[in-house]
């Protein structure tokens, strides 16, 4: 076997770190979430002081993923107020772009929200923070250029 062939085979079998998208519920109420892209996942029920996670991934049609969170069961189809953690992940770079927004109101008004990345026990990338549950005037899209987990913490 030639050396280039061995290297090619190793490249095919080497694991690629794929972080997770995590929703951490520190509220005293149950929250509900959906993973939305060209398809919509089933509703995920996140009880108080627990979390939901899924591997970071891309959508073959839209490219991005939106994790939509509500205080209302079936809130996605009831047009209830939602907080949306949207991200676009590129495994080969590696890089992730992420944003926090809301629609139909502010479901976590009066509570704090934070989006942060975590890699190897450290967060070296921008943190998005909504004190009191409202989007700050200077909020925008953040970027991180490393393998990382992406965590939305509600009611911290």
Secondary structure: elements and pairs:
Layout: H1 3-13, E1 20-25, E2 31-36, E3 44-46, E4 50-55, E5 65-70, E6 82-90, E7 95-103, E8 113-118, E9 128-130, E10 142-144, E11 149-154
Parallel strand pairs: 1-11
Antiparallel strand pairs: 1-4, 2-3, 2-5, 5-6, 6-7, 7-10, 8-9, 8-11
In words, what does this structure look like?
This protein is mostly beta strands and 156 residues long. It has a single domain, classed as Sandwich (Thaumatin), CATH 2.60.110.10. The chain is 7% helix and 40% strand. It is built from one helix and eleven strands; from the N terminus they run αβββββββββββ. It has one helix at residues 3-13; strands at 20-25, 31-36, 44-46, 50-55, 65-70, 82-90, 95-103, 113-118, 128-130, 142-144, 149-154. The strands form two sheets. A six-stranded antiparallel β-sheet has the order 3-2-5-6-7-10, with no helix packed on it. Strands 4-1-11-8-9 form a five-stranded mixed β-sheet, with no helix packed on it. The longest helix is centred in the N-terminal third of the chain and has 11 residues, at 3-13. The protein starts with a helix and ends with a strand. The model is unreliable at 1-15 (pLDDT under 50).
């Amino acid at each position: 076997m030639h050396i280039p062939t061995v290297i090619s085979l190793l490249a095919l079998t080497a694991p690629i770190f794929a972080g997770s998208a995590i929703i951490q519920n520190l509220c005293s109420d149950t929250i509900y979430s959906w993973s939305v892209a060209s398809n919509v996942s089933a509703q995920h029920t996140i009880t108080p002081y627990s979390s939901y996670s899924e591997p970071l991934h891309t959508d073959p049609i839209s490219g991005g993923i939106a994790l939509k969170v509500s205080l209302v069961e079936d809130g996605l189809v009831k047009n209830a107020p939602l907080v949306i953690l949207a991200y676009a992940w590129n495994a080969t770079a590696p890089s992730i772009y992420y944003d926090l927004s809301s629609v139909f109101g502010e479901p976590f008004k009066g509570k704090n929200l934070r989006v942060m990345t975590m890699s190897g026990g450290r967060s070296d990338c921008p943190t998005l923070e909504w004190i009191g549950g409202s989007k700050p005037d200077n909020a925008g899209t953040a970027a991180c250029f490393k393998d990382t987990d992406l965590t939305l913490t509600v009611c911290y």
